[in-house]
Amino acid sequence: MMTKNNSYSVPHIQDTRLDQEQDHVIGADDNTDGAGCCGWLLYIFSILIIIVTLPFSLIFCIKVVQEYERAVIFRLGRLPSGGAKGPGIFFIIPCIESYTKIDLRTVSFDVPPQEVLTKDSVTVSVDAVVYYRVSNPTVSVANVENAHHSTRLLAQTTLRNILGTKNMSEILSDRESISQGMQSTLDDATDRWGIKVERVEIKDVRLPVQLQRAMAAEAEAAREARAKVIAAEGEQKASRALKEAADVMSNSSAALQLRYLQTLSSISSEKNSTIVFPLPIDILKCFMEKK
Fold this sequence. Notes:
- By secondary structure, the chain is an alpha+beta fold.
- The protein folds into 2 domains: 2-102, no CATH class; 107-211, 2-Layer Sandwich (Tetrahydropterin Synthase, Chain A), CATH 3.30.479.30.
- The chain is built from 10 helices and 7 strands.
- The chain has helices spanning 2-14, 36-52, 58-61, 137-142, 147-163, 168-173, 175-190, 209-250, 253-268, 281-290; strands spanning 62-65, 69-75, 88-91, 97-103, 107-117, 123-134, 195-206.
- The strands form 3 sheets. It has a 3-stranded antiparallel beta sheet. A two-stranded antiparallel ribbon has the order 1-3. Strands 2-4 form a two-stranded antiparallel ribbon.
- Helix 5 (147-163) crosses helix 7.
- It is rod-shaped and about 130 Å long.
């Protein structure tokens, strides 16, 4: 569905650059239509054949390209003025002209997992996905033999080069900056090929099994250490609270008796059982003083 939506938006973006396509073509000059006397003779001869064989010749002369496509025409091996044709109907001369359809929709491909040695000498396997589109149809045909294949190969080498300058912790925690750096590098390199890299995403980072176990053991030890520190802090706070409560009760015998009665009440509310409590000394002191 994503590529379907892009088929209606991308061509409008490209229309502003179609007039300047030949400026970026390797070997292009101002005399792109100059084919010499032989070229003119072939041109006139082809037109005569088309006229003689009408209307059957129209089957081979009239071509149609979709909204998301462009047609790059070569006339006797040269690029005629006007840039790529389309969308819609266009006319070619079969004997002296040939054309190539270029899809302008966004294309995605998976970068195969790359075994990379990081800056801190750790071997990791990383794969990514790249989204790109053809921004200049004429340049993508004239400047590179296979723009799509070249972009895929360049993405693999760029991923290896960028990851080789990062530590393992940076690869695991800072994927967004790696993706942005890879996109910028690819976009600069593929501009001469008529390719626009729109997005790069790191899919997965796989570590060796032994390293995963070591990291898991390290994380578990760190969690246990934090748990012990938290438990020790809780014991310390609880002991301070008990000491403060003991100090308050030692200054008031009534508070101690109330606490004693509260304990008896909480025990009596539970299951029926016989519990023997020692008689508080404070109660006996009253009788001793009377005697």
